[in-house]
């Protein structure tokens, strides 16, 4: 038997072709059949987590017989070690691949290593995001629009998933009830309706009934959190039409069903409208396009929808037109926050998971990390007075905060690198540099700066391999092992850790945003870490923290200072911006050990 139980909140299996008849999961003395959700997709969410006490979880796959000829095939059985799953904690999911079958286990927050909870009892530290994600693990969105309107590209870019993934978008399918969940980003669930006409596989009644059903759901995780109504912008003289008959009927007769659901009308192919205005030799093509959009797109829909509270955005999937997509994500986040609000100062889990799901705007990640949502909860509010941390070591306290922050950024990190001990140790070691003065800061030696990207003050990148500025372990930061109350100026350590971690993740986000569906590598993390370590941004932040007086009466001055520092823009650091801009994509995709020598051999 395992020394501690494993609690599983959901099981998801994708891929392996279309020849799978059934999938069954076995644990302890139980067998559990996983329902099919799509052609290549099996999944089940558990309101009460499955409790696994044994050493192994088995996955049994039964494949169809070709034309039902021959004996029934024996099931393929894959075994997953519970120890391997527990070793990934405190990450919130475990992923593996067996014979082209991608297996994901959602890990309940209660699956905490036994060594970390011994003797704690009611005083156990738990990340804020765990409770929020228990209540609402995914942002649930309905996207409505005809085939070819540009929905798939829009979703790919907004949520950072694979281009036209066969497991997500199946040509000819239009089951609005089907839950589509991507392996690359499982913080959102998509319901796809391919229009309102019967020929498109769904009509007005189907859409209305589905929305009404979701509004009646008891649990907030099962309700719709947003709706995008997608229409192609019609170009004058091209024979295009803004709305099909079914869409007109829905807007005229059934738009009221969207009440209390954040709904945004998305006009696609905006780049083609701009091109048309340029061909018409308009003096100001942008202004002409906006006027056309108002008169020929927005006004007709308002005439049909009457009092429906709809918002409007024009987008394009073409390079150089990211502004519209950014506006869509920003507007969606704002509408979700307005609709679902907060309860007694606690952030809505829907707002938090919306920030997690999107992979477009880093500032929403920053705000989600600290300023408006997760950061102002029970562990962050009173860092200076520390009523929430009695008897715990600094390392234990930082662990819950670290888990909260990386959960909000939601990188595609199936290996759990951002939650691993080596990365946590790097961040703790980085905090130690707060005691160095700006003038006394030791730069890398000349031999360490070979192969830099430019003649820059950021001697970081394209070392082969990347050599980190700290050795493995925490040998030189004994303060991390002290209890919270015994460390002088402890608020400075916490402030530096939070600010440093958010800025490292912001740089990593910037590096990987165009390929966010790809698995995160340690090399990419090391590049982001080293960029920040050598930046003026870090030195400025540490200098302000070092000189900060937290004894300001009547307000949470520590948190206010953290908010101010994390909102510092990396764009203001010219060296850092130049270095990031010039990093080749292939440098981010190769993986390597955390600590290596010049020959690339592990040193730990």
Helix and strand layout, with pairings?
Blueprint: E1 6-15, E2 20-27, E3 30-34, E4 36-38, E5 41-52, E6 56-63, E7 76-81, H1 82-86, E8 93-98, E9 101-107, H2 114-117, H3 128-135, E10 139-144, H4 151-159, E11 188-193, H5 204-215, E12 226-232, H6 245-254, E13 263-268, H7 270-279, H8 285-305, E14 311-314, H9 322-340, E15 342-343, E16 346-347, H10 349-357, H11 362-371, H12 394-409, H13 421-431, H14 490-512, H15 522-533, H16 536-546, H17 557-566, H18 574-581, H19 586-589
Parallel strand pairs: 10-11, 10-12, 12-13, 13-14
Antiparallel strand pairs: 1-5, 1-9, 2-3, 2-6, 4-5, 6-7, 8-9, 15-16
Helix pairs in contact: 3-10, 6-8, 7-8, 9-10, 10-11, 11-12, 11-14, 12-14, 13-14, 14-15, 14-16, 14-17
**Strand residues, percent:** 15-25%
How far apart are the first and last residues' alpha carbons, in Å?
Answer: 31 Å
- List the strand order in the largest sheet: 4-5-1-9-8
Fraction of residues in H or I helices: 25-40%
* DSSP summary: helix tally: 19
Radius of gyration: 26 Å
The tally of strands reads: 16
The biggest beta sheet, please? 5 strands, antiparallel
**Poorly predicted regions:** 112-122, 164-168, 437-461
The structure class reads alpha/beta
Sum up the overall morphology in one term: globular
Mean pLDDT equals 80
């Amino acid at each position: 038997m395992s020394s501690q139980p494993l609690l599983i909140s959901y099981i998801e299996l994708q891929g392996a072709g279309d020849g799978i008849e059934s999938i069954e999961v076995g644990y302890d003395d139980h067998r559990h059949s996983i329902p099919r959700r799509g052609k290549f997709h099996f999944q089940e969410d558990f309101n009460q987590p499955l409790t696994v006490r044994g050493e192994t979880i088995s996955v049994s796959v039964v494949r169809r017989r070709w034309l039902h000829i021959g004996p029934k095939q024996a099931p393929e059985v894959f075994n997953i070690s519970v120890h391997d799953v527990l070793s990934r904690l405190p990450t919130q999911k475990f992923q593996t691949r067996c014979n082209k079958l991608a297996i994901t286990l959602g890990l309940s927050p209660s699956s905490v290593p036994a060594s970390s909870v011994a003797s704690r009892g009611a005083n156990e530290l738990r990340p804020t995001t765990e409770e929020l994600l228990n209540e609402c693990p995914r942002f649930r969105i309905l996207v409505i629009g005809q085939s070819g309107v540009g929905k798939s590209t829009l979703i790919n870019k907004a949520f950072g998933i694979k281009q036209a993934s066969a497991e997500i978008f199946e040509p000819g399918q239009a089951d609005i009830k089907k839950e589509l969940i991507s392996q690359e980003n499982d913080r959102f669930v998509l319901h796809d309706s391919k229009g309102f006409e019967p020929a498109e596989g769904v009509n007005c009644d189907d859409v209305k009934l589905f929305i009404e059903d979701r509004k009646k759901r008891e649990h907030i995780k099962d309700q719709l959190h947003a709706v995008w109504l997608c229409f192609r912008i019609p170009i004058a003289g091209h024979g295009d039409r803004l709305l099909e008959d079914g869409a007109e009927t829905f807007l005229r007769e059934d738009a009221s069903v969207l009440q209390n659901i954040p709904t945004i009308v998305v006009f696609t192919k905006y780049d083609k409208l701009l091109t048309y205005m340029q061909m018409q030799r308009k003096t100001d093509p942008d202004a002409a396009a906006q006027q056309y959009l108002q008169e020929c797109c927005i006004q007709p829909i308002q005439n049909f929808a009457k009092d429906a509270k709809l918002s409007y955005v024009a987008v394009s999937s073409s390079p150089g037109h990211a502004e519209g997509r950014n506006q869509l994500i920003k507007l969606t986040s704002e509408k979700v926050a307005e609709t679902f609000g907060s309860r007694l100062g606690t952030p809505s889990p829907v707002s938090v998971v919306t920030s997690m799901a999107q992979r477009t705007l880093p500032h929403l990640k920053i705000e989600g990390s600290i300023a408006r949502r997760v950061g102002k909860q029970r562990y962050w509010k009173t860092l200076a007075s520390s009523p929430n941390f009695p008897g715990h070591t600094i390392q234990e306290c930082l662990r819950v905060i670290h888990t909260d922050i990386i959960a909000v950024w939601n990188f595609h990190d199936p290996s759990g690198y951002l939650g691993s001990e080596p990365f946590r140790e790097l961040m703790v070691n980085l905090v130690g540099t707060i005691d160095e003065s700006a003038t006394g800061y030791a730069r890398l030696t000349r031999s360490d700066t070979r192969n830099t990207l430019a003649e820059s003050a950021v001697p970081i990148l394209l070392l082969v391999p990347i050599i980190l500025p700290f050795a493995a372990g925490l040998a030189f930061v004994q303060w991390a092992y002290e209890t919270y109350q015994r460390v002088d100026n402890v608020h400075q350590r916490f402030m530096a850790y939070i600010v440093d971690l958010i800025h490292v993740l912001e740089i990593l986000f910037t590096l990987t945003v165009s390929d966010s569906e790809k698995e995160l590598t340690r090399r990419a993390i090391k590049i982001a870490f080293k960029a920040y370590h050598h930046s003026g941004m870090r030195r400025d932040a540490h200098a302000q923290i070092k000189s900060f007086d937290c004894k300001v009466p009547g307000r949470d001055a520590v948190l206010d200072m953290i908010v101010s520092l994390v909102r510092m823009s990396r764009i203001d650091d010219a060296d850092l911006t130049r270095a990031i801009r010039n990093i080749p994509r292939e440098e981010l995709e190769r993986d390597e050990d955390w600590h290596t020598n010049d020959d690339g051999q592990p040193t730990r």
